[in-house]
Structure formats: C-alpha cells, structure tokens
Specification:
Blueprint lengths: L4 H11 L9 H21 L15 H5 L7 H17 L10 H4 L3 H13 L17 H16 L11 H10 L12 E4 L6 H9 L5 E6 L2 H13 L6 E4 L21 E6 L34 H10 L1 E12 L8 H12 L2 E6 L12 E7 L8 E6 L5 E3 L2 E3 L2 H13 L7 E5 H6 L21 H6 L2 E2 H5 L2 H6 L1 H7 E5 L2 E4 L6 H7 L1 H26 L7 H16 L7 H26 L4 E10 L5 E12 L3 H8 L1 H27 L15 H10 L7 H38 L5 H42 L4 H21 L5
Parallel strand pairs: 1-2, 1-4, 2-3, 4-5, 6-8
Antiparallel strand pairs: 5-7, 6-7, 8-11, 9-10, 12-14, 13-14, 15-16
Helix pairs in contact: 1-7, 2-7, 2-10, 8-9, 8-13, 13-22, 19-27, 20-27, 21-22, 22-27, 23-24, 23-26, 24-26, 25-26
Family: Belongs to the N(4)/N(6)-methyltransferase family.
Organism: Melaminivora suipulveris
EC number: 2.1.1.72
Length: about 800
C-alpha cells in the first residue's frame, strides 16, 4: 500500500530526533537530507544503465544499511558511501559522518547513525514504488524538511530557504507558465540557496527548461544540487561561488567578461548585504553591471544584486527579485539608481509582502518585477500592497493559498483594486521624485469606525452607517426595512428587539432565498465535480487534479455577491492539505481500494525506546469506518446511539443519587468508595434495623441503577463489537463504484459542502454583529445616560445617609 504524504513527512521528520540536541538545525539538516538523497537515488537509479545519477558499486543505501552497528560506522560511511557518490556526481562539501563533535563518540555515534539509517529502512519509504509520476512526492518531502529546518535554524541561519509560498508567487508572476518553453528556455538564480525558488519556476513552465544557479555557501550549494536531483532535474547546473565578485556563468562567445544572459531570472538575495563589494571594484566592474544605473552604497548591497539580474537578462527577459522595502525609498545613490531604472522602463511591478515571512529576518520585503521586453512602451508601474494577507504559522507569518492566488490573479490581469493594487503612471512617480514607497500610491489603511455626535446626544442610528451595508441591501433590499425604521431625517431606529436581530435576518424571505441560491450554486458545482472525481484512475497527477478542481471552484463563485470567492477557494485548499491530498496519492498509486489494516501504537519509555505495542483496532484509507457505517449500517448505528443515550441517562441518575445523599450524616457520607461491594456490605450491616429503612431504600435504589448501568454498558459494548465486525466484513465486498461514492460524495464533497456552508453562516453573522453593534452604540442617548447616572447617584447618597455617612 502506498504511503500517505503526511506519514512520509512525519517519518522523515522523526529521523531528525536521532540528531536533534547534538547540533544546530542548520547542521543536522545536512545529515538528514543526505540520507534522504542517498535513499532516493538508490531506489530510483541503482543498477540502471545510463541513469543521470551514478551509483558507484558499494555506495548504495543498501550498502550503507549494512554498516549499521559497526564500530567505525561513521568513517565507513564517509569512505565507502558518501565520498564515492559525491565524486561520481560532482557533489561538493558533503557532511562528515565521522564528526564526533556533532555525532558523539564511540557507542553514541554508532547508535545515533544506526538509528538514523534504520528510519529510512521503513518499507513504506520505498521511493521506487511510492512516487506518483510527475508529482515529485519526494521533492515535496525535501521541501517540507527544508522549511522545518529553516524554522529551527534561528535568525542567522535560515537564509538557505525561500518560503515555498513566496517562490510560487514569483514563479507565476514572471509569466513562464503562459509562455511556450523548451529545453532551450533558461532560468537563473544568482543566489539560489538550496534551489527551491528555481524549482518552483521549473514547475510552472509548460515544458522542461534548463536551470542555472549559483550559491556562495559551499554546503548549501551541495544541498541545491541534491534538491535538483530529487526534483528530477539532474542536468541543472549549480555552481559555487560569490555571484557578485566571481560570477560563474559567462558567455564565451562574446568575450571573457560578458555575463551569460537568461530568459528568466529569480532571486532572494541577502538583505542589505554590507560586504557585497568584497573582492570587487564597483567603479571598474568588468561586467558593466553598474555603469548604466549607478553604483550601490558600500553598506547596502540590495541594488547590486538587482543590477546583476538586469545585466543577466536577455533583451526579452523577465525577472522577479525579493528585496527589503528600503530600496523603494532610500536616498542618495539608491535614489539615483531608482530614477534610472524607472526611466529605462525596466520596472514592471512592485508587490509589497507581509512582514516576518522570511527566515533570518522579520522585516517586510517586496517583490520587484523586471520586464525588459516591453521596457520601451512602459507607461507606469503596477503596484500592489499585499501586506495584510497572511496567516500565523508558529514564529513566522505565511501566505495562505488564497493570498497566493489573489496576488497572482490581480498582478497578471493588472486589475486595479481599491486599497490593494493600482497602475501608477510614470508622471505621478516623477512628481514624487521617483520615491516608490507603496503607501505613497496605495492607501491600504482601513477607515476608522465613525462616531456620530448627534446620534450619541439625541439617539438614533446614523443612516450613513446603515447605508454602508449596501452590499447586503443590494441582495436583500427588503431586509433593511425589516431591521430599521425611520426616526428623524438622517437617523433610524431598530425596528425589532435586539434579541431578535439574528432571527429576523435568517427568517427574512429574501435572505433565505439568497442562502438557497448559494446552496444551489454549490450543488451545481458538485454535480460537475463528482463525475470527474469518480473517474480518477491510477497514475493520475494529484497536483494537476487540485489545480483544476480549485480553479473550477474559484471560477464558479466569481462574481457572486457577499461571499468572498477566495475564502471559498481556501476551504478547498485547506481540506486538500489536511485530508484529500493523502487520499488522492493513495488512489493515484493503488486505485480505488478500501483495505483494512491494524493500527499498532508503539509505547516508548522515557529513553525513547519501544517497550511494547498496543493494538488500537483497525482502520481503512481512504474510506473511514464512520462513512461506511453511515451508508450501510445506519440502523445499527442508531441503535448504538440510543443505547449510549440511555447509558448516559442511567449514569446521570446514579451520579445524582450519589450527590444527593453524600452530605453530612447522609447515606454515603461514610463510604470510602461507592461501589457494589461497599453498598452490599452496608445493606448487610443494617439488615433488620427498622431505623435504617430510609437508608436501605437509597442503597437498594443505587444497586438497581448500578445494575441498569452495567447492563447498558454490556449491551453497548456488544452492539459496538457487532457493528465493528459487520463493518470490517463489509469492506472486501465494496465495489469500485461504491468506494468512489463513499470517497467522492460522502467524504470529499460533503466535507467541502459543510465548510462552504459555514462561510455562508459567517456572512449572516457579520451582518448580525454589525446591526447589534450600531443598536448598542446609539441605543442610549447621552442625556438619558446622564439622567440615569444622576438617579443612581441619588440612590447611593440616600443609602450612605442612612448609614451615617452623609456628606
């Protein structure tokens, strides 16, 4: 059975436990990722002639596994596995598996490396069989690990990784997905880190493209090379070196000092690199990168990287570069560079991002989009302030799927959206002395809620505040009149009791009709999606499935009133990430199967060693027991629910009886523990005692209730066991069509229906809350409030006088 993505990720992350504590995350990531790489290339390429990756004899993962327990395991891994593999594939700076300062000495090193290797021996991690072709499940696992390592590496060591969400935005806005591509199409990242940004651009291309990257840090450049291989890009060229001082990609046909130019360039260079000019004479740059636009300041290297990118672009090239916000408004030399860039027409757009997105810094950044092809016709720069769209993710912020889609949609369509995005003409920019700071051009602030003085003094809800809810009245024109009544010119009063606001909205015919239309809208999409989902066959690409499904849902809800189209889209993407993705990968590998398996939970001691295993019953992916029971054994489940309700009632009666008679001198006052044995013993003690008749009645009542409770517990347990057996026996009888209905209809679409229905609930809740807020704000005019205060003050003074505290 194929491994689920979520299980793969958790298994790989668990391997980090073998190293965590011995070294910093920025160091132990190297060991884990090398193990992942060796396992993957061994499964995929070992023994294959003409494979793009060479596995030298004796250097496969199986050969590494044979070293487990060896006293010199670290040294042998270096000499027999890592060294030959690195040499054969030009992989530089592999980690030292015999470093006792990181891995410990003696038995500690042996145990640590042995356990680490054992993690990757899990049969479920057979990468030759558990990979959906075209979806790079292993590449995604690598991405997952890189993000977690970056999170744990701390402020100064997480710069090897660009968040995947930002990388996806950049890959899409440069337009590579809408342009025809071939292997001759080139993509370059001059500060490629671990290569994730390059790979995101490759994912967006319509065909295989050629990737180039340079990275200053030697260990990180090795990670990038491995990342290329794991993502099925083994021919990508990754060079190590300082891009500004020693660029590795040159065009020999044009002369020794000519940079190679590319079709697309993306980069996330270090922010404000204070040592950017080390090893370089900017005034006499042999590559002419600063001659046209100006030399960046000695202590601010942001523009140095951007100018390198521009010089590395073909005349038809497109680029996107992440820079800190300071480049938009800082003066002196940077102001001159900005002026020249704008006048040359190279700046296509600027996208402001939320703060705290990037590892290694919390400052906000922006994406600078370069377009050489249309520079001569440039009339303005498209600016976007996307700083408010994100979610919290541990210590960092993170773009949601809806944020990514919204940014890309608005930018690619050049759609002007109030408080979010607009095309700013070059004349306006020149009037601002080429200052590109986004707040100068886009007011993204939210208007403060206005307090109406006349409303507070004289009472009444301002009509302007009610009119501001025009989006609701446009859909339900009569609802306004049902909620508000005229008071005086320009002011209204609530037409219903405050407690009835919610019910008035929900019961209004127009609002009910709107909700019904929205339900019908989802049903129409469901009818389109269900046949396509049930038609999925082994070998399909899950990533293509979710892209098509999500885009169809987004298009289906576009233009609908009140509802946030991108919020609907987010519900699908959230469900995909938590549940549907795992199901899709299982189906892509195994087809529509519903096979049960035992759930075995390993119990560990305080040292982390497994002491015993506990059988937690059975389960089935992708058809949970609850779905099968709901469809085929509803009557049996209802019987169980009824028994459970009766048991709860009996238990409640028993608890109530115990509580009622547990006070001082009460029946159960002297009991250490109330159970059948103690109650029976007490009845035996008071047998024949006429004065204890009332106590005996209570004790006998307890025994009767306890007997009923025990009988119900047994009935419930027997019924649950019988249903469990029936359900388990039903799985092998399921036809493919039944499994498809259970998964597509009862699981996927039902869950999405419930989520989107909840979105509709938020619409009514928002209106209810705003109406109630206005009613409470202006419900008591200031004179009436002051009169009430005077009345209360008089009462307090009267009480004080009677108590002898008169003023």
């Amino acid at each position: 059975m194929a491994i689920k993505k979520s299980e793969l990720y958790s298994s790989l992350w668990a391997s980090c436990d073998e190293l965590r504590g011995g070294m910093d995350a920025s160091q132990y990531k190297d060991y884990v990722l090398v193990l992942l790489f060796i396992k993957y290339v061994s499964d995929k390429y070992a023994g294959q002639p003409f494979a793009p990756i060479t596995i030298p004899p004796g250097a496969s993962f199986a050969d590494m596994a044979a070293l487990k327990g060896s006293s010199d395991i670290g040294d042998q891994i270096n000499k027999r596995i890592v060294g030959p593999l690195a040499t054969a594939n030009k992989l530089a700076d592999m980690p030292d598996f015999n470093d006792d300062t990181k891995l410990g000495t003696g038995k500690e090193m042996v145990d640590r490396l042995t356990n680490l290797i054992a993690t990757f021996e899990n049969p479920a991690l057979d990468f030759s069989k558990n990979r959906a072709d075209g979806d790079d499940i292993l590449g995604d696992a690598y991405e997952y690990l890189m993000r977690h390592f970056a999170t744990e590496s701390g402020k100064s060591k997480g710069q090897f990784y660009t968040p995947a969400e930002v990388s996806r935005v950049m890959a899409r806005i440069i337009g590579i997905g809408s342009a025809p591509t071939t292997s001759a199409t080139t993509v370059y990242d001059p500060t490629c880190g671990s290569g994730s940004l390059l790979l995101k651009v490759a994912d967006e291309a319509t065909a295989k493209v050629t990737l180039y990257g340079q990275e200053k840090d030697s260990a990180t450049s090795g990670l990038a090379r491995m990342n290329m291989i794991l993502h099925d890009n083994p021919t990508a060229e990754i060079r190590q070196g300082n891009t500004l001082a020693d660029p590795k990609f040159k065009d020999s046909t044009l002369g020794r000092d000519q940079l190679k130019t590319f079709d697309y360039v993306v980069a996330n260079p270090p922010f404000s690199d204070k040592r950017w000019s080390t090893g370089l004479d900017p005034l006499h740059d042999p590559y002419g990168r600063f001659a046209t636009f100006g030399v960046p300041p000695a202590k601010q290297g942001d523009f140095a990287y951007l100018l390198h990118i521009i010089r590395s672009l073909k005349s038809t090239g497109q680029a996107a570069c992440i820079l800190q916000h300071g480049v938009l408004f800082r003066g002196n030399a940077e102001a001159e560079i900005r002026r020249n860039l704008v006048r040359h027409g190279y700046l296509k757009g600027i996208i402001g991002l939320p703060a705290n997105l990037f590892y290694g810094t919390g400052i906000p950044a922006c994406i600078i989009v370069i377009d050489k092809q249309h520079a001569h016709a440039r009339k303005g720069i498209f600016m976007m302030d996307a700083s408010s769209g994100y979610m919290k993710d541990g210590p960092k912020n993170r773009l949601r799927e809806q944020d990514i889609h919204r940014i890309v949609d608005v930018f690619t369509r050049q759609t002007e959206v109030p408080q979010f995005a607009r095309m700013v003409g070059l004349e306006e920019i020149e009037k601002n002395d080429f200052n590109l700071n986004l707040p100068r051009y886009i007011d993204a602030s939210r208007a403060e809620d206005r307090q109406d003085i006349a409303g507070h003094l004289q009472g009444g809800i301002p009509a302007a505040d009610v009119d501001a809810l025009h989006a609701y009245w446009a859909v339900c024109s009569g609802l306004r009149g049902a909620l508000f009544a005229p008071l005086r010119p320009g002011y209204l009063q609530l037409a219903v009791d405050q407690a009835a606001i919610k019910s008035t909205i929900h019961q209004h015919a127009e609002f009910a009709a709107f909700m019904a239309r929205m339900n019908d809208l989802f049903d129409a999409w469901r009818q389109q999606a269900a046949p396509a989902l049930k038609a999925l066959q082994p070998g399909f690409h899950p990533k293509q499935l979710i892209a098509q499904l999500a885009d169809s849902l987004l298009a289906h809800y576009t233009g609908q009133p009140l509802i946030d189209t991108y919020a609907v889209y987010q519900h699908l993407m959230d469900y995909w990430a938590t549940t549907m993705q795992d199901d899709a990968y299982l189906i892509a590998t195994d087809g529509w199967k519903a096979e049960t398996y035992r759930v075995i939970e390993a119990k560990k001691n305080k040292d982390g060693k497994v002491t015993r295993s506990v059988d937690k019953g059975w389960a089935c992916d992708p058809v949970p027991k609850a779905l099968l029971v709901a469809r085929y054994f509803a009557a049996e489940q209802q019987e169980i629910d009824d028994l459970a309700a009766r048991l709860d009632s009996a238990s409640a009666q028993l608890a109530e009886l115990e509580e009622e008679h547990s006070g001082e001198d009460a029946t159960f006052a002297g009991f250490d523990k109330i159970n059948k044995a103690s109650v029976t013993d007490r009845l035996r003690e008071i047998k024949g005692d006429a004065d204890a008749q009332d106590e005996a009645e209570v004790l006998n009542s307890w025994l009767e209730l306890s007997k009923d409770e025990a009988a119900l517990k047994k009935q419930l347990k027997d019924a649950e066991a019988a249903l469990d057996a029936k359900a388990c026996a039903r799985y092998p009888q399921l036809s493919e069509a039944e499994i498809q209905a259970l998964v597509a209809d009862d699981k996927w679409l039902a869950a999405l229906d419930a989520a989107i229905h909840g979105e509709m609930g938020r619409i009514s809740q928002a209106l209810t809350q705003r109406v109630r807020e206005l009613a409470e704000r202006y419900g008591t005019p200031l004179p009436l409030m002051l009169a009430k205060v005077e009345e209360l003050e008089a009462k307090v003074n009267a009480h004080l006088a009677r108590m002898g505290f008169a003023a």
